[in-house]
From TrEMBL:
Pfam families: Fer4, FeS. Residues 162-191 form the 4Fe-4S ferredoxin-type domain. This is Uncharacterized protein. It comes from marine sediment metagenome. The keyword Translocase applies.
């Protein structure tokens, strides 16, 4: 009797196993999703930084978008041109001319150059300080609490003397600093050459009001616009640069505009060329932003 029960149990288990194997085999065919092999190829060609600079959650999602939709192959800021070329080869498409985007800080005032700055004792973050009135007189300028520093996984931006400063040797253009800035004074600029001209101020007020809160703020005098049509004024008192018109081979008028700016708020950012370095040798050239990371926000003595 015991032997019969054992055989019955064993037979039942074998039958159930065979049935489950059949069900799983059927399900594998019925619900199988065909994955384009190019997705894996694209994913392997990407750097795997998962920084989000392309606008997608990670490299895997970007790889799917590139293969399955019309997403551009040159959105990976970390991989750059070589990565775009590799993706284009995998997909059999051509890469149109594009420019790498790098951050530009639209503020040039250090702590000493900001007026009406209070002894802020709240949480030492830009996002928090931005909702508190009276932290500093200029409501457009860099707050200097280093949110951008902490957002950058490439150690490419540091807060020096209260001012966000980009290390363009390390920057890959992921845009994390631009996204986290609560005052939106960090924008992504197309770098057509290694050193670009940007407006290093964001104060939209009239000159008299700007002088009351900052020693180096743009006065809205429009001298730059008179020198070059690259600079325009819309409904504010701060110039805007039309980067579509930015021609690196025709910069004579722009150089005139830089020289005429009384507050030196038209700044060159990026990697200086040999010609730039030779031209300012032995001189103090405030119009050229030089990076010198001797201190960071961690070295600043905060009170509160």
């Amino acid at each position: 009797m015991t032997l019969v029960l054992i055989m019955l149990a064993a037979g039942t288990m074998l039958a159930l196993g065979a049935l489950m194997g059949y069900v799983l085999g059927w399900a594998n065919k019925a619900f199988h999703v065909v994955v384009d092999p190019r997705i894996e190829q694209v994913n392997e060609a990407l750097p795997g930084a998962n920084c989000g600079g392309c606008g997608f959650v990670g490299c895997g999602e970007y790889a799917e978008a590139v293969v399955e939709s019309d997403t551009a192959v040159d959105l990976c800021t970390v991989g750059g041109e070589s990565c775009a070329a590799a993706l284009a080869e995998i997909l059999g498409v051509t890469v149109e001319q594009s420019w790498p985007f790098r951050p530009a800080v639209h503020c040039g005032a250090t702590y000493a150059e900001r007026l009406k700055r209070s002894d802020y004792r709240g949480e030492q973050q830009c996002a928090t300080a931005n909702i508190v009135s009276g932290v500093q007189g200029c409501t457009y300028g860099c707050l200097g609490f280093g949110d951008c520093d902490r957002s950058c996984t490439f150690d490419a931006i540091h807060t020096i003397d209260g001012l966000a400063t980009v290390d363009y040797d390390k920057c890959v253009g992921c845009g994390a600093c631009s996204k986290v800035c609560p005052r939106n004074i960090i924008s992504m600029v197309p770098f057509k050459i290694e050193q670009m001209v940007v407006v290093a101020c964001a104060n939209e007020d009239f000159g008299k009001d700007v002088k009351g809160v900052c020693k180096v703020g743009c006065l809205g005098c429009k001298a730059c616009a008179r020198a070059s049509d690259l600079f325009t004024f819309t409904d504010t008192n701060i110039p805007v640069i039309d980067y579509d018109k930015y021609d690196p081979d025709q910069m004579d008028e722009v150089e005139v505009a830089l020289a005429k700016c009384p507050m030196k708020r038209l700044a060159k950012v990026g990697k200086p060329s040999d010609k730039d370095i030779e031209g300012v040798a032995g001189e103090d050239a405030p119009g050229v932003v030089q990076v010198d990371f001797k201190t960071t926000v961690d070295d600043t003595e905060w009170h509160g």
